[in-house]
């Protein structure tokens, strides 16, 4: 009887440990998927920022596609920006046919003002 109880306890501990290992593996997989999606979003934002060079200075344009809404902006200071709805984006400076400076959009960057944005002016 005592041996049976001991086997049951050990079996239960093994099942709990296996569950913890599986749970950790699933969490790591989800984190990797989020990281990959962010990298894809930033690559897409860079492409869109490059396409913003065709916009007139100090203007912006909204585009929609299967992955969501993007805002392209050609700022008065010469920066070209692209954001998605989650605020992820890319900015760059384009001069004489080449990128001279670029980087990911930081949190403190203002979202371009559009009618869909809460800070939009009427």
What number of structural domains do the residues give?
Answer: 1
Rg calc: 24 Å
Overall pLDDT score: 77
Query: Ranges with pLDDT <50 over ≥5 residues?
Result: 113-122
Spatial order of strands in the largest sheet: 1-2-3-4-5
The portion of residues assigned to helices is 40-55%
Shape: rod-shaped
Total helical segments: 1
Percent strand equals: 25-35%
Overall description:
This protein is an alpha+beta fold. It has one domain. It has one helix and five strands, in the order H-E-E-E-E-E. It has one helix at residues 2-51, and strands at 59-65, 68-74, 79-84, 89-95, 98-104. A five-stranded antiparallel beta sheet has the order 1-2-3-4-5. Strand 1 and strand 2 (68-74) form a beta hairpin. The chain is rod-shaped and about 85 Å long.
Which tags fit this structure?
122 residues; 1 helix; 5-stranded antiparallel β-sheet; 28% strand
List strands and helices in order, with pairings.
Layout: H1 2-51, E1 59-65, E2 68-74, E3 79-84, E4 89-95, E5 98-104
Antiparallel strand pairs: 1-2, 2-3, 3-4, 4-5
Give the structure's gist in a few sentences.
The protein is an alpha+beta fold. It has one helix at residues 2-51; strands at 59-65, 68-74, 79-84, 89-95, 98-104.
């Amino acid at each position: 009887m005592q041996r049976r109880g001991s086997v049951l306890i050990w079996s239960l501990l093994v099942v709990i440990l296996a569950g913890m290992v599986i749970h950790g593996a699933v969490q790591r997989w989800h984190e990797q998927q989020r990281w990959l999606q962010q990298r894809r979003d930033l690559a897409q934002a860079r492409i869109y920022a490059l396409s913003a060079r065709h916009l007139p200075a100090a203007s912006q344009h909204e585009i929609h596609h299967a992955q969501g809404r993007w805002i392209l902006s050609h700022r008065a200071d010469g920066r070209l920006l692209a954001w998605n709805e989650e605020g992820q984006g890319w900015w760059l400076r384009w001069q004489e046919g080449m990128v001279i400076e670029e980087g990911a959009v930081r949190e403190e960057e203002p979202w371009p003002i559009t009618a869909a944005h809460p800070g939009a002016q009427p």
